[in-house]
Amino acid sequence: MDQLDRRILDIVQDNADLTSEALSELVHLSPSAVQRRLARLKKDGVISRTVAMVDPKAVGRTLTILVEIEIQTEHRQGLDQFQRWLQAADEVQSGWYVTGSTDYVLLVTVRDLEEYNQFIEVLMSENPIVRRYTSLVVLRTVKSGFKIKIG
């Protein structure tokens, strides 16, 4: 990966909707060269996927909660089952298996506290591995995104 690839990655992380022509003007390459580089970056797994970021509030998901999960045991089978459950849960926007005082941290978006309470009831009833959870209600989003510093 060279400096042009890094520049392209930096730009498309801010706006993946740019046309090859617009991107080519910003990096001083031909549109076809930009397309080839993007295709290679995707093929090599540097760009893992291209998605649209939806504002949760614009679609009625007005409540964002960080949920810390403490599990009872770390047997592989239980962890695998719990992680599959998390991947299938529509309310879970992101989730991480972490070190420290908790085992998992989830980013959950819901319409309201009633929907959150229903989510927690299902989480606890379907996952006996969960010992305890802590809810951190987001009062204000200060920064949101997935941009990675390149270089």
Question: Can you describe this structure?
Answer:
With 151 residues, this protein is an alpha+beta fold. It has two domains: 3-43, Orthogonal Bundle (Arc Repressor Mutant, subunit A); 56-137, Alpha-Beta Plaits (2-Layer Sandwich). It contains five helices and four strands. It has helices spanning 3-14, 20-27, 31-43, 76-88, 113-126; strands at 63-71, 92-97, 104-110, 130-137. The protein has a four-stranded antiparallel β-sheet with strand order 2-3-1-4. Strand 2 and strand 3 form a beta hairpin. The model has no long low-confidence stretch (mean pLDDT 95).
Q: Give the strand line-up of the largest sheet.
A: 2-3-1-4
Q: How confident is the prediction overall: mean pLDDT? A: 95
Radius of gyration: 20 Å
Number of strands: 4
N→C terminal distance: 10 Å
- At the first level of CATH, the class of the largest domain is Alpha Beta
Can you identify the CATH superfamily of the largest domain? Lrp/AsnC effector binding domain/regulation of amino acid metabolism (RAM) domain
Number of domains: 2
Shape: elongated
Question: What class, by secondary structure content?
Answer: alpha+beta
* Residue share in β-strands: 15-25%
> Residue ranges: pLDDT <50 for 5 or more in a row?
none
The H-and-E topology, N to C, reads as HHHEHEEHE
Name a few traits of the molecule:
Alpha-Beta Plaits; Arc Repressor Mutant, subunit A; 151 residues
Short summary of the structure?
This protein is α+β, with helices and mostly antiparallel strands and 151 residues long.
